[in-house]
Amino acid sequence: VTPVEVVEALADLDRAAGEALAAVGSRAGAWLLKEPLAHEIVAGEPLPADLAAAASLPPSAEEVLAGRVVPMSFYESLRQVAEAVHGFAPAPLIDFCAEVTIATERGQLRPVDASSVADLPRGHLSLARPASVVLHQQAGPRVVVNSVMADYLGSRSRWGRLEPLHDTVVRDAATTAAQRHPGAVPYQFSASTDWTTTQRPGPGLPLAEWGGALLDHPGAVDLARFTVRLDRETRTLQVADPDGAPAALLYGGAIPPHLLRGVEGILATICSPWAVIPPRPRPGAVDGGTVAPRLERDGVVWSRRTWVLDADAVPLWERGARITDYLARFDAWRLGHGMPEQLFVAASSTRGTRRVGKPTWVSLEHPLTLVCALRGSAGADRWVLTEALPAVAGPGRVIEYVSVVDHG
Q1: I need a labelling partner for 24 at 20 to 30 A (CA). Which of 126, 171, 216, 339 fits?
Q2: CA 225 → CA 228, 235, 239, 253, 314, distances in Å?
Q3: What span, in angstroms and rounded, lies between the C-alpha atoms of 157 and 144?
Q4: Rg (CA), the chain
Q5: What is the pTM assigned to this prediction?
Q6: Alpha-carbon 23 to chain mean position
Q7: Which residues in 93-168 belong to E strands, given as ranges?
Q8: For the segment 318-328, what is each residue's pLDDT rounded down to a tens digit?
């Protein structure tokens, strides 16, 4: 298959999706124009020894993260519902999730704060021991952190569908379950597996699902046969499988668990209510917006230098303009702001501070990137510009490492 054939096939897929939505009387959303409906995962050659050695985080980074792991206060809301409705008796797991959802929607939960979960032990059977997953790159001697989250199995288990990585992923799943939930029988679950392959769980652990997902995974254990109870002594929520054994539910989807909603979001919180708050710099005011400095400690870049500017403060490409004039205007503008030649840009909105689009790499050496990325965007009233670190130097590949740090 040639690259041209791949591009044409993706375009045909987008077109077919739009036609299918139109056939049922629905208008295709903006996401259909911006986001690809397919992706490709391939296994390459093993990394050279020098690159593989760079995959480890320095001890200083692990020490920083260890002090920034906190339990989410929503766990206290779950304990409230369990105690108010069931006391310390076991309840059907899916029914309990529905009870929490209804209580949340009706505003029946008491306000909670971080102090309400200060008593939470750092792991007990169904309750996971805390850990972080860090996605990072190498920029010379520096480690550059892309994102930090509470660890979840799906951050790496999806690669297990590739034959060269299958055995490694299976071993990792077993090791992760044993380290996070000693004494509990591990299962994995996911969300929305019926319409996105990135959410389909990888190999290594028995699968537990509920509702319509059982049609796609007939061999899965039905979560409706599990129970949950509030343990009187530890005040932790403990799950039992159909055999009555202590059980742990590890989330195997690719979407970070803190973005899950409904039943799946509650399941993820029951067994792993941890959050990791990485260091962040304080932005300062500049003309047209703010700039946050690069935050670097002991050779680890925790945050890249980032500008958040009003839309009218950023030189955007206008149809019909001369490309050379636009490049000169943009170059003078970015130099005035002290911006590097390579950036990541994203349209954003002050309403909810949400990004309208995903960050796009741009470079003056590649004018088409600027023309395509920096144009008016519906619903956007500001732009987020971030230094490209590490910067791209000639053709090659970009390597992002995934490191797991235990805090138990």
Answers
A1: 216
A2: 10, 23, 11, 22, 56
A3: 23
A4: 24
A5: 0.85
A6: 33
A7: 131-139, 142-150
A8: 888 888 999 99
**Tokens coding 243:** 């055999």
Instruction: Report the phi/psi class of residue 368: left, alpha or beta, with left for phi > 0 and alpha for psi in -120 to 50.
Output: alpha
What pLDDT is stored for residue 56 in this prediction?
Answer: 80
Coil, strand, or helix at residue 333?
Answer: helix
Contact between 349 and 30 under an 8 Å Cβ cutoff? The reply is no
Structure token digits, residue 72? 């989410």
- The pLDDT value recorded for residue 358 is 76
pLDDT for position 361: 92
Percentage helix, strand, coil, to 5, in the chain? Answer: 35, 25, 40
Alpha helices in 181-261 (DSSP H): 213-216
Strand partners of residue 363: 342, 366
pLDDT band of 280, cuts 50, 70, 90: very high
The bridge status of strand 131-139 relative to strand 142-150 is: antiparallel
Handedness of CA 297, 303, 309, 315 (dihedral sign): positive
Q: Rounded distance, CA 369 to CA 23, Å? A: 35
- From the list 273, 316, 337, 279, the residue with the least C-alpha distance to 129 is 273
Sequence letter at residue 281: P
Segment holding 229, helix H or strand E? strand 227-230
* Crossing angle of helices 74-86 and 93-105, rounded to 10°: 110
The DSSP bridge pattern shows strands 300-303 and 306-310 to be unpaired
